[in-house]
Each structure stands twice: as C-alpha cells, then as structure tokens.
Amino acid sequence: TAQPNSVEARDISYHMHSYTNARRHEEIGPLVIEKGDGIYVEDASGKRYIEAMAGLWSVAVGFSEQRLVDAATRQMKQLPFYHNFTHKSHAPVIDLAEKLVSIAPVPMSKVFFTNSGSEANDTAMKMIWYRSNALGQPQKKKIISRKRGYHGVTIASASLTGLPNNHISFDLPIANVIHTGTPHHYRDAQPGESEEAFATRLADELEQLILAEGPDTIAAFIGEPVMGAGGVVVPPATYWEKIQAVLAKYDILLVADEVICGFGRTGSMFGCETFGIRPDILVMSKQLSSSYLPISALLINDRVYQPLADESNRIGTFGHGYTAGGHPVPAAVALENLRIIEENDLVGNAKRVGAHMQKRLRELADHELVGEVRGVGLIAGVELVADKATRAPWKNAGALGLLVNGHLQENGVISRNMGDTLGFCPPLIITESQVDDMVAAVKKALDASLPEVKG
Ligand code: PMP
C-alpha cells in the first residue's frame, strides 16, 4: 500500500536502510532529502515537506541553524578531536557537563558521555550491574522495563526495548531483563476502568512482579516519561507517582530515558518535570545537539556515582567508555544548541504552540478513521482504526498507518507510522500557523484514505 517515492531512487543498490522492509524498499526506493530550512525539508525533485517528526524526534532548532554550523566549524578548527580516557579532557565536554548538571530536573553529580541513545542505555545497564557488584549485591541485576518501551537496538538496549520486532529473530531479550505493563489506557485498560484505577493496577502489577522475582534481585526500572516509538503513549497523571512509590519501597533505581522527551519536547526542559519523575540516571540524546552531530549522555546522582567510584578505585579503573564519547565537536554543537533553546525560549514555545497542536489534532478525533489523539507539548500520536467501536485495524495491524502516512507524504508532511499510530513531533521552533498547515494536511490524508478503507 505504500506509494512509490516520486524522486529517482538513487541509492537502492548499495545502501541497506535502518528499520526498512528490504524487499519493499527495492520496489519503491527511498525519499531522498537534500535540503533543510526551518521546519521544512526538500527532496531531490524540489518538493518541500513539513518535517513533522523533526527527523526521528531530533531537531529542536530546525534544519538550518547557522549557529550550530558555526560552532562545529570553530571547534573543528581549534581541536577537531580529543578523547576522555584516563584523566584527559577538553573544554567543550567540561562546559557541557557543567551545563547539564545545572539544568538537571533533580540533583545530579556526574555526566558520562556516549554517542547514541542505544549506547547510553547500554552504559546505564553496565553502571547498574557494576554498582550492584560494588555494593556486594551480585544477585541484584534484574532490570524492569516496559512492553512497548523503546530504548535502542544494541544487544542490551534492544533487550530493554519492549517491542516484539526488536526481539523476534534476534534471540532477545538477554537474561536479567523483564518487562511489565504499559500505561496505554486506550489499548490496555479494562472496559470502564478509569485512568486512575488503571495506574493503580499497573503499580500493583509491578509490585507483584517484584515480589515474585525477589526484591533483592531487582536493580532498576527504566522508562520513557512519554513513550515515543511504542506509539506516543502518555501515562495517566498519577502513574509515575505510583510507580515511584513501589520502587522506593524496594530500593530500586529509576532510569528516565529522556532521549525523546529531553530539552523541551513535553513543554518542560525534561519530561521528568512534566510528570514529577525523580530519576537516579537520566539518559539523553537527540535534541541535546538537535542531532546535527551524534552525542548522548547519562546524568547520574550520588547514589549511582559513589559506589562506582569506590569500586573503580578498588579494581583500578571504571572499564567502560567509547573513543568518540564526549567528542569535542558534537559537545560544542550541543552547548550552542542549549544556548539557542534557552535564548529563544523554545521550551516555552513547545508549551504554547504545543497546546495549540494538541487542540488542533484533537479536532480530528471525530474522524471515522481516528481512534484516539493523545500527546503533551509538541509530541502527539494519532491512533488510526478501521472501526471506532471495536478499535479494530484495517486488514492487518499497521496497514492503515502505512496508507494514511503515504497520503500524508504526498500532501507534503513527513510523519512516522508506528503501527497504526501516526507520530507528530515537529521542531520546537514551529509556529501556530505552521501547525495549522500540518493539521490540514493530516485531515486531507485521512479523507483521501477513507474511500479505500470503507469502499
Ligand atoms: N531511547 C529512546 C526513548 C529512543 O527514542 C531512542 C531512539 N529513537 C533510543 C533510546 C535509541 O537511540 P539511538 O537510535 O540513538 O541509538
């Protein structure tokens, strides 16, 4: 059902794409993007699109921010690379670490730099295990994650991810990773169950799982404040408070995966602030540098850091790190990116224009193909159904998402269908009238799809 891409498919032959149906790709080819300008990107044929996913939830400041280009150029000229192994450092990474600690939503002690969200979550897992060993609790290694959660694709982070697509055929998850329920009220609540009762039930189920596994074997819980790739799942208002009460009772660390929510997405600097989450480890990437260059990081508190420091002192080193972790060029870009976010109040913009986007998208909730519209700030999901009453999909799950998303691309908006949920996560610089253009294109794509589905 996917439409062929209009542009000449130049790179079908050699480039195997991420998250792509390889055979379908051989048929339809890629959409080749050549330029960016604000919230827009342009393909090789000159057609312009609103990048309504900010290029994989990434580009806070838009696609043409000269200050980031200049920051990268300056740093490239001064010191294009240096590492952070064994007592070496450089100014961009020192300044960035200081900045991140200063804006952290809860008191944090240290920053550890990595290169991708997946690497950062791998690092979190290793830090947690190292800490348990340091504390003389080698049995305390299990990490609880959630079904539908997304934490990356390396062996460890794909194990934390709770999507079947990332486990089946890869022989994952690895040992010591277990998955609990998702706060997805529309799909997973019982008939007539209130959001509040649903949140209470999820917290109870978490506690039962901990008791069944043995509380002294559970080291940590990881979750995204708002789930992104799992279908933009916004938890009930009291969910995080109830989950944190259970974790505190059994001395379990909390990892907040802010790879999508971090730096303004939900209308606060961090999703943790929007939902009252108090993490021990906060994982960030994407909007940290607006993804102009890859960089990710973990903020850790003293509860995590002090045992790590003691253990590394005892055995000689903390034996973990990446050659390019804390690379000076992406670090300089990230610093400038954070300055732009603050100077232009992009977090405030996400809150204000986000409220407008939520309101406008919710006007589509009456459409015959829309099951639910959900979101907060500048992140939203529109879940599509073929039958509003039964919430049943069209043909097979994901087919409707693909169909509507194809029409949306024709209409000049790039979204992403996560199964049957369309994601909307535009750059934080978007204006209300640009939101209106986006929503009009979504409406048009829904209308264009209707005869195919009902006809
Ligand atoms: N965590 C979350 C919440 C993510 O959304 C992603 C990427 N979409 C990752 C981790 C993994 O990041 P990366 O693709 O940079 O490895």
TrEMBL record:
Origin: domain of life: Bacteria
GO biological process, any: gamma-aminobutyric acid metabolic process
Keyword field: Aminotransferase, Pyridoxal phosphate, Pyruvate, Transferase
Record's protein name: 4-aminobutyrate--pyruvate transaminase
InterPro entries listed in its UniProt record: Aminotrans_3, Aminotrans_3_PPA_site, PyrdxlP-dep_Trfase, PyrdxlP-dep_Trfase_major, PyrdxlP-dep_Trfase_small
EC number: 2.6.1.96
PROSITE patterns, alphabetized: AA_TRANSFER_CLASS_3
Record carries keyword Transferase: yes
Gene3D superfamilies assigned: Aspartate Aminotransferase, domain 1, Type I PLP-dependent aspartate aminotransferase-like (Major domain)
Enzyme class: transferase
One GO MF term attached to the UniProt entry: 4-aminobutyrate:pyruvate transaminase activity
Pfam families, per database record: Aminotran_3 (PF00202)
Cofactor(s) this protein requires: pyridoxal 5'-phosphate
Family of the protein in this entry: Belongs to the class-III pyridoxal-phosphate-dependent aminotransferase family.
Organism of this sequence: Aquamicrobium lusatiense
